[in-house]
């Protein structure tokens, strides 16, 4: 019988119970990132088909000086979903030339935070305070330690904002603004719309790394919740949904399975052809981000776009007046 974690993650249990009762069945993408999933995602970021992470890094490095010039001498850099912070190190090194930094990486994956501390060893004038939490509780804790004259630069790099549906993304941005002070800066990465085939290849690479990353979510349920998913009985699928401008990742059952998840108290049958929806990744137009800034209480200061891979970094400033929904 599969081993069940001594104390299963309460959030994971709730998500599994709710998601397996939906039609189509669904699992939240945030649970991709256990130790195995985090390692697989790092491999995805260097695949030739997946240009997003390299575009993100190019823009951050190219415009680090412009960002640094807007920061006070003492600054807290808070990063949501930091992962291992490989792409963040060049930015921190550049900022540390002008500022004394407190860096608070926030991630639900403890292995990623451990890797983050390893990657940032030796960066001078940077004090690291990792927080193994969800985004908003972690942000609250990071800001609770703020000094009176300390500025804030909030980072949400990559394109994790694309994992929210548009309405949820706007609510999330407003929630971030409510926790920030006027004048605080926010650097937001977002992936832009591009040709269908280019997107499909990015989420269904020839080497099968993304497929392994997707299936690892079920492997995690086997490891931690005692589930009996037969991984060989699933096929990875990436779908572009034109009218919603999003890529969807699914796991399609290629044969009938009787599934048991003991820790969640679940037993059900997956029909052949039935899918488990694991991720949505929305793609944007550049103007969408400018509109979102204004609707969520920020002033858009700059938008930088990559030439090789359609992607943009957006630098916003928290305004003095929180704007109402419109």
Number of distinct beta strands: 13
The total of helices stands at: 11
State mean pLDDT (0 to 100 scale).
93
Return residue spans where pLDDT drops below 50 for at least 5 consecutive residues.
none
Helix content: 25-40%
Radius of gyration: 20 Å
Overall form: globular
Give me the strand/helix succession.
Answer: HEHHHEHEHEHEHEHHEEEEEHEE
Largest sheet, strands/sense/barrel? 7 strands, mixed
Determine the strand fraction and express it as a percent band.
Answer: 25-35%
Placed side by side, the strands forming the largest sheet appear as 4-3-2-5-6-13-12
Structural class: alpha/beta
Q: Report the end-to-end length measured between terminal Cα atoms.
A: 53 Å
What does this structure look like?
With about 325 residues, this protein is an alpha/beta fold. It has helices spanning about 10-20, 35-45, 50-60, 65-70, 90-95, 110-120, 135-145, 165-180, 195-205, 210-225, 285-295; strands at about 25, 75-80, 100-105, 125-130, 150-155, 185-190, 235-240, 245-255, 255-260, 265-270, 275-280, 300-305, 310-320. The protein has a seven-stranded mixed beta sheet, sandwiched between helices. The protein is globular and about 60 Å long. The termini are far apart.
